[in-house]
Amino acid sequence: MMTPEPRRIVGPVAVLGFGTMGGGIAQLYAQAGFVVVVLEVSEELLDRGRDRVDAFLQDGIRRGKVSEESREATLGRIRGTTDPAELAGADLVIEAVAEELDAKLSALALAADVVGEGAIIGTNTSSLSVTELANGVPEPARFAGLHFFNPAQLMPLVEVVRALQTADETVASLIDVSHRIGKEPVEVADRPGFLVNSLLIPYLNQVIQSYDEGLSSAEDLDLAVELGLGYPMGPLKLLDLIGLDVHLHAAEAAYSQTRRPEFAPPPLLRKMVAAGYLGKKTGRGFRTGAEP
Questions:
Q1: Do residues 165 and 260 both lie within one domain?
Q2: Active-site residue, from 124, 159, 173, 247
Q3: Is residue 43 located within the same domain as residue 116?
């Protein structure tokens, strides 16, 4: 079968949500020269999102990675709005609201009403069914997952997730635009955890269980993985960085959809989240702060 020619996405790009992921995605496209319109529910959230993007760019200036001219140009291409009507004319929509089915369906329906049936629509979900979300928009053949990793500005990978309804042209267009913003896209099927998380969740769960069983100290466990397996970061450090609550949510979602035991969250993970030991964000985790 011949691979279809991608439709060249020229913008504007609409981003739904200006949180950590939405802001990172908006910055990526703006730095690549796209006009970006970000939809949020309040001016306060728009201001916070813009401040986060500016802080990220300012840090890039300090590290010699971003020029002042590039910072100003990037911020100048990002426009925030609370009015869905201002998304009209968008060539690409990327949903990046809270990881809740109802919230995503609501945001997608709102955008689909105004952008027209020619726009490609992507969701940045990391755990929900892309096929189920596709049912929430007219012409679901133009819908796919576009899963960025945190921080989106730095992580080179993006998963292009094919729902059952997704057209070949949609996949080809998203792969093309991902290359144009400097990312390495991989096409994956719509399965719980997609590709990366379907490998990562069982690995991290096994690490937590091994630590709970006293196999080694947290420090030695991380060191063994880094030096013995060549991983750039030990798994317990990684969990603290990701957030234990984030990993718990992803594991619960994958387990609820598959009932596969490797996705089941270990008891220690549940206890630590219940205690508020979430890693770097709270100052206490496996390697952050006092030992649990």
A1: no
A2: 159
A3: yes
**Which among 124, 126, 127, 173 is annotated as catalytic?**
126
Q: Tell me whether residue 126 is one of the annotated catalytic residues.
A: yes
Same domain, 178 and 42: yes
CATH number of the domain enclosing 127? 3.40.50.720
**Does residue 123 sit in helix, strand or coil?**
strand
* 73-92 as b/e: b if 16+ CB within 10 A: ebeebbbbeeebebbeebbb
* 159 catalytic per annotation: yes
Active site residue 247: no
166 lies in the same domain as 244: no
Choosing from 127, 178, 197, 205, the catalytic residue is 197
**Cβ contact 197:213 at 8 Å:** no
- For residue 227, the model assigns a pLDDT of 98
pTM comes to 0.90
pLDDT tens per residue across span 84-121 = 999 999 999 999 999 999 999 999 999 999 998 899 99
Residue 279 lies in a domain: no
